[in-house]
Design brief:
The chain has about 450 residues and is an alpha+beta fold. The chain has 20 helices and eight strands. A hairpin with a 4-residue loop joins strand 1 and strand 2.
C-alpha cells in the first residue's frame, strides 16, 4: 500500500510504524546492505581528517556518555555525540551516496550514523537496523523528489534532520504520538541555509549533515522523554510548507523502494561530477593525453552541475583547499586528466596547489546545455567533453551515466571492492572481511555485532 498525500507529521509517523523489513524484496535488502557497506568503508577512510578530529573533541567535551561507539576510536559517547562523530566520518570525504532528483540531490547515507547509534543504544537487531535505514532512505528520497528546497535558499540537510528522525524513531520503537513530536521538534528547530555550499566553500560543507543528524537524535530523545513538539509542522501557520518548501505531497512506500534511486560514487567528487570525471579519464586513456598538450577543455553539462560545481554559485576556478576542490568541476577534471584517477590522494594539499593542476584548471570552461538539463530531469547524468590540443586537434566524449548511477548500479562485488579500498586505509584486511560478513548477513546479527567491529 502506498501512503498518498503524506504531508502531516501524523501521516509520516504512521508510515514509520507501517514499515516492516519482512516486506522488503530481496533486491531491496541487498541495496540497503550495499548502502551500509559503502558508507562504512568511506567513514573508516576519513578517520584522520582534521575536521573530524574537531568534531571528536567537541563530542567528548559536550556529550559525556558511554552508550555508543565512536567508530575507529576505541571510545564511546552519548547517542548524540556518536551520531555527530560517525556522520562526520561518513560524509567528510565527499565519497558518499546520493539521491538523484530533478531539484535536489541529498546524501541518504547522512542518516546512517544516527540510525546505527539509535540501534546500538537500544540493543536492536540487524533486521530492525535495516528497517530504520529503509525508513530514512524512503523519507529522504521522497522529500528530495517532491519538496526540493535548494532554489529557495535552504540546504539539503534540512531534509536530513527529518529523515534521520524518522529512522531513529523506528529503532527507538517510538509510538505514533512520540514520533510526531520528534519530527515536529526536528523540522521546526533545525533548518539549514544553502549558504553552506555557495560562494567560498569551507569545511562546514562536510560537517553540516553531521550537525543535522545530531539534531535529529536530540529531537528524538527529547520526544522520548516526553517533550511535545509542533505536530502541525508541515501544514501549520508559518509552518514548513509556507516558509521552507511550498506545497507538496509524498508517496511513501512501506517497501522502501526509494533506495533503488540512490547512486554509489565511483570517484571522490561531488555527485554531479561523476559522469564528467569518468568521461575525462576514459578520453585521456584512449587518446593518451597529457596536461601539457591541452589548450582548452569545454564541458557541456546540466543546470544543477553548472550551478553547484561549475561556477553558478561562486567562482570554481579559485581552488586552495579540499572543500573547494571537491566542489570545483575545473579542478576535478584537471586533476583527473593529469592523474587518470580521482581518489583521496587527489585532494592532498600538496596536490591541490601544484602548478600543473592549477594551470590546467584555468583552461577549463563549464557550460550548461539545456538539452542535458532535460535529460538529467529524465533520469540521466549527461556530460559532453571537448578537449582541444595545442596543435589544433580536438577530441570529444559524451556520457549519459557512470558506473554507480541507478541506471548502471554497482553490484555487491563492486561495492565490496570499494569498501576494501577505503576501509583498508585504516583497518586490517581480516577485520574488513568480518565487517563485510556481518553486513551481508544482518538478519543473523545484532547492531552490537557490527559496532563492535567498528570500535
Amino acid at each position: 500500500m502506498l501512503f498518498h498525500h503524506m504531508t502531516t507529521t501524523e501521516a509520516l509517523a504512521r508510515f514509520v510504524q507501517s514499515v516492516s523489513v519482512d516486506e522488503f524484496s530481496t533486491a531491496t535488502r541487498e541495496e540497503l546492505q550495499k548502502r551500509l557497506l559503502d558508507s562504512i568503508g568511506i567513514a573508516i577512510a576519513a578517520l584522520d581528517a582534521e575536521p573530524v578530529a574537531v568534531v571528536e573533541a567537541t563530542v567528548q567535551q559536550a556529550n559525556a556518555g558511554e552508550q555508543c561507539t565512536l567508530w575507529g576510536r576505541g571510545e564511546t559517547a552519548s547517542p548524540v555525540g556518536a551520531t555527530l562523530f560517525n556522520t562526520a566520518l561518513t560524509r567528510y570525504l565527499d565519497y558518499m551516496d546520493s539521491f538523484l532528483a530533478p531539484g535536489e540531490t541529498p546524501h541518504p547515507s547522512d542518516n546512517l550514523g544516527a540510525v546505527i547509534a539509535a540501534g546500538e543504544y537500544v540493543g536492536a537487531s540487524g533486521e530492525s537496523l535495516l528497517a530504520g535505514v529503509g525508513v530514512a532512505y524512503e523519507v529522504q528520497g521522497e522529500l528530495a523528489w517532491n519538496a526540493p528546497v535548494r532554489d529557495s535558499g535552504w540546504d539539503h540537510v534540512t531534509h536530513t534532520v527529518i529523515s534521520a528522525t524518522c529512522g531513529i524513531a523506528k529503532l527507538l520503537d517510538l509510538d505514533v504520538e512520540t514520533t510526531r513530536n520528534a519530527i515536529g521538534i526536528a523540522g521546526t528547530a533545525h533548518n539549514a541555509l544553502r549558504v553552506t555550499r555557495t560562494g567560498g566553500i569551507n569545511e562546514w560543507k562536510g560537517i553540516a549533515s553531521a550537525n543535522a543528524a545530531r539534531n535529529a537524535m536530540y529531537a528524538a530523545l527529547l520526544a522520548r522523554n516526553g517533550m511535545e513538539g509542533p505536530t502541525n509542522l508541515f501544514v501549520g501557520q508559518k509552518g514548513w510548507k509556507q516558509v521552507i518548501s511550498g506545497d507538496f505531497d509524498l508517496d511513501l512506500d512501506p517497501g522502501c523502494g526509494r533506495v533503488h534511486d540512490v547512486m554509489t560514487k565511483r570517484y571522490v567528487a561531488e555527485t554531479y561530477a561523476q559522469s564528467a570525471v569518468e568521461g575525462i579519464i576514459e578520453l585521456t586513456e584512449r587518446e593518451d593525453l597529457t596536461g601539457s598538450d591541452v589548450e582548452a577543455i569545454t564541458l557541456e553539462t546540466f543546470a544543477g552541475a553548472k550551478l553547484i560545481i561549475g561556477g553558478g554559485e561562486g567562482d570554481r576556478h579559485a581552488v586552495e583547499t579540499k572543500a573547494q576542490a571537491d566542489h570545483s568541476l575545473p579542478y576535478m577534471l584537471a586533476v583527473a586528466l593529469l592523474d587518470r584517477e580521482l581518489g583521496i590522494d587527489q585532494y592532498a594539499p600538496r596536490r591541490i596547489t601544484r602548478d600543473d593542476v592549477q594551470q590546467l584548471l584555468g583552461r577549463i570552461t563549464v557550460e550548461e546545455n539545456s538539452a542535458f538539463t532535460d535529460r538529467f530531469d529524465a533520469g540521466e547524468m549527461p556530460a559532453r567533453l571537448t578537449v582541444e590540443l595545442d596543435d589544433g586537434t580536438t577530441h570529444q566524449i559524451e556520457k549519459d551515466a557512470f558506473e554507480g548511477h541507478p541506471t548502471a548500479p554497482m553490484d555487491w562485488e563492486r561495492v565490496e571492492r570499494k569498501f576494501h579500498d577505503t576501509a583498508q586505509l585504516q583497518f586490517e584486511a581480516d577485520r574488513c572481511d568480518e565487517i563485510v560478513a556481518v553486513v551481508r548477513e544482518m538478519k543473523s546479527h545484532d547492531v552490537d555485532d557490527l559496532v563492535s567491529l567498528l570500535a
